TrEMBL record:
Native organism taxonomy: Bacteria, Pseudomonadati, Pseudomonadota, Gammaproteobacteria, Pseudomonadales
Keyword Membrane: yes
Residue span(s) of domain HAMP: 401-456
Gene3D superfamilies from the UniProt entry: 1.10.287.130, 2.60.40.1190, 6.10.340.10, Histidine kinase-like ATPase, C-terminal domain
Pfam families noted in UniProt: HATPase_c, HisKA
Protein's recorded name: histidine kinase
GO terms for MF: ATP binding
SMART domains: HAMP, HATPase_c, HisKA
UniProt cross-references to InterPro entries, sorted A to Z: HAMP_dom, HATPase_C_sf, HATPase_dom, His_kinase_dom, HisK_dim/P_dom, HisK_dim/P_sf, TCS_sensor_his_kinase
Recorded catalytic activity of this chain's protein: ATP + protein L-histidine = ADP + protein N-phospho-L-histidine
Subcellular location: Membrane
Organism annotation: Marinobacter metalliresistant
């Protein structure tokens, strides 16, 4: 599995965190619903007791009993014959909140009405459709015309026994304002004011009269035609025996219920006939800020919260769909308790309780108030955690892709630098990155450069070795050929000496080739001991000068007192190789100076030789095996001396370098060996 896939798997494992959070939220949601259900039951019991106490002495509206529902007003109604200022007015569905009564005969118009009160006046909005009105003709009162007959039967518990039923007749010669006419006297009653208007394919009457007290009964009928004439009197009306009872909301009860409700709750008290006589609700949590005021992070958070809510709804039990009107509810279709879904797709937790008189209390809790379905702190934390984890996953994938691209690029560069036969054909570009991959690329670049130099030497090694062996082999061969043709002993001895000299040269070449290998093996068994490097350097330099009179060889440094731990024999061999290398590049009577001093890094042993300088940018490391800069000399060289110097320096924990140097006005090359000293 490649690095990108490994990081992808590791990133996907981080998704276990929001999954565990979602499981916790689902469990918490279930626990909250169970707790809310229990709390709702207890709260419904208390509210039912409160409502029952306040409804004592008020007769209930039985199922099937005719009634006119009176909606309380929150504003004012302009008596103009139009219904656009009535509660619940809907322009697209103007008859949505109306009650209606159809005549028993087919083909008759339909009577629609609404009722409202401001606690002082009773307002009625009556419509007959389809029916084009025939207006009252004052010049011919017996002529058939459309009219409205109104009956009122006061509540006997709220008025004196001598008050009887009242009736009014409303008719008009033309659309506009009109007053009610009392009973058979037809005297105007200015307390009953109305306004007659046409309404599409029918007519509409808006009227106002004093608000009856208690459970009074009110009925009305739309009439046309005339009794005793050829045109039979026709009518559509509310029930008349008995008259419909006026049902209105109990505002005192609603005020008692309000402080007992929690946020997101609503309670309704319903008569046995289904009429809502009390309705109260507590506001939900205020909505969040508007979309255009949210920051990008808040927008993403809201999206995550909505997704979280959708997941919670998905795992919730399926709510029961119910149909409830604004003013009337069929309690037989409601479940006793549980989750319900209203027409507006909102989900509520519902419970019902019986109330004195056969009434029903309906208490609902909005699920938007529960923890997982609201903008709560925990929901925000989980949503933000999900966003952070998704962002981290994308970052890790991007980072993995970047690493994979860098590794692939390095792999291609390394592969392109070596051909199928193993020859170095190019270089690996250096990297400026400071991380491990950058260091690896730099190491590869250095390795390829070293291998390139080593391969170049190997390619020239056969030529170098052939050149080195050609002369002694030719000498041996020619000496042996001439030896067979010699007549005198002196000539034979001469050829034998020449062959022996060439053979010795061959032995020295082979010895030099194996010297470095033998040294590496001997280093594994060499013992280290403390000794004075100054004494060793002083004595060795004196021996070099005695053996070589063609160069000026001298020592610069203390004669004693510089202690180190190692092998004095190996240090002498190191000096031998450095001085031999210096002789090869130093002209006749040139200067070779051996120096020794104590520095902060350790003991610095140096060999300076007068002569040609090193190349400014050597292609290969001169301390590597089989490397020599003696191109063009008559006698070849295998380049093992400086390799031996590097091996001995490494054995003593030191390092070696070479650089062009000017000393006392003389240009040349200085080789330095830095070796740790013994601190007293």
């Amino acid at each position: 599995m490649n690095l990108k896939r490994q990081l992808l798997v590791a990133s996907l494992l981080m998704l276990l965190i929001p999954w565990a959070g979602l499981q916790f939220v689902l469990e918490l949601d279930d626990a909250l619903r169970q707790q809310a259900r229990q709390h709702l039951r207890e709260q419904a019991e208390r509210l039912a007791e409160t409502a029952g106490d306040l409804m004592i002495g008020m007769p209930a509206v039985a199922s099937g009993e005719p009634a006119i529902y009176v909606e309380p007003l929150t504003g004012t109604i302009n008596l103009d014959g139009y219904g656009d200022d009535w509660p619940g007015y809907d322009e697209e569905n103007p008859l949505r909140n109306w009650q209606s009564s159809n005549a028993s005969g087919s083909g008759l118009p339909t009577l629609h009405w609404q009722a409202a009160t401001d606690q002082q006046n009773l307002y009625l909005l009556v419509r007959v459709t389809p029916r084009q009105p025939v207006f009252f003709n004052p010049g011919n009162p017996d002529q058939p015309h459309d009219r409205l007959r109104l009956w009122l039967k006061p509540d006997i518990q709220s008025v004196s026994p001598d008050q009887s039923a009242l009736s009014w007749l409303i008719r008009t010669p033309a659309p506009g304002q009109v007053y009610g006419l009392i009973g058979a006297t037809l005297k105007p009653d200015y307390r009953v004011s109305s306004f007659w208007q046409g309404a599409g394919d029918g007519w509409q009457l808006e009227l106002r009269l004093p608000m009856p007290k208690g459970r009074s009964r009110l009925g009305f009928a739309a009439l046309w035609g005339e009794r005793g004439s050829g045109n039979r009197e026709m009518a559509v009306s509310t029930p008349t025996d008995p008259l419909p009872v006026l049902v209105s909301r109990n505002l005192a009860l609603e005020r008692q219920l309000e402080p007992q409700l929690n946020r997101g709750q609503r309670a309704r008290l319903v008569e046995p006939a289904g009429w809502v006589i009390a309705r109260q609700s507590a506001a939900s949590t205020p909505p969040g800020p508007k979309f255009n005021t949210l920051s990008p992070l808040q927008v993403m958070e809201q999206i995550s919260l909505n997704a979280l809510r959708a997941l919670v709804r998905f795992y919730q039990p399926e709510p029961t769909a119910i149909q409830t009107g604004r003013n009337r509810i069929d309690t037989d279709t409601l479940p006793g308790e549980g989750l319900v879904r209203h027409e507006d797709d909102s989900v509520w937790l519902l419970t019902t309780r019986p109330v004195f008189g056969g009434r029903t209390l309906i208490l609902e809790q909005s699920l938007d108030q529960l923890l997982t379905l609201s903008g709560s702190t925990l929901g925000s934390v989980i949503a933000r955690s999900t966003l952070i984890i998704v962002a981290l996953t994308l970052v890790l994938l991007g980072y993995a892709s970047w690493l994979s691209w860098r590794i692939t690029r390095l792999q291609r560069a390394v592969s392109a630098s070596i051909d199928e036969d193993g020859r170095i054909t190019g270089t690996v570009p250096d990297s400026r990155a400071k991380d491990e991959l950058g260091q690896l690329q730099r190491h590869f670049s250095l390795m390829v450069d070293r291998l390139h130099g080593y391969n170049r030497y190997l390619e020239s090694f056969s030529r170098r070795l052939s050149h080195e062996l050609k002369t002694p082999v030719a000498v041996v061969r020619s000496s042996l050929e001439n030896l067979s043709h010699c007549d005198s002993e002196a000539e034979r001895r001469q050829y034998i000496e020449r062959a022996a000299s060439a053979t010795e040269r061959l032995r020295q070449i082979l010895h030099g080739m194996s010297e470095a290998a033998r040294l590496e093996q001997s280093l594994d068994h060499a013992d280290k001991e403390p000794f004075d490097l100054a004494e060793v350097a002083t004595q060795a330099t004196a021996a070099y000068q005695a053996l070589d009179s063609g160069h000026r060889i001298r020592y610069s440094g203390p004669e004693a007192g510089l202690q180190m731990t190692g092998s004095p024999e190996l240090m002498v061999q190191l000096l031998d190789k450095l001085v031999d290398n210096a002789r090869d590049f130093t002209p006749e009577r040139g200067l070779i100076e051996v120096g020794l001093e104590a520095t902060t890094d350790g003991l610095c042993l140096s060999v300076f030789n007068e002569g040609s300088a090193l190349p400014e940018s050597p292609a290969t490391d001169i301390f590597s095996p089989f490397v020599s800069l003696r191109e063009g000399q008559e006698q070849g060289h295998l380049g093992q001396g400086l390799l031996i110097v590097s091996l001995i320096a490494d054995y003593h924990g030191g390092r070696v370098d070479a650089q062009n140097h000017t000393q006392g006005g003389i240009d040349g090359v200085c080789f330095r060996v830095i070796i740790p000293a013994i601190h007293s």
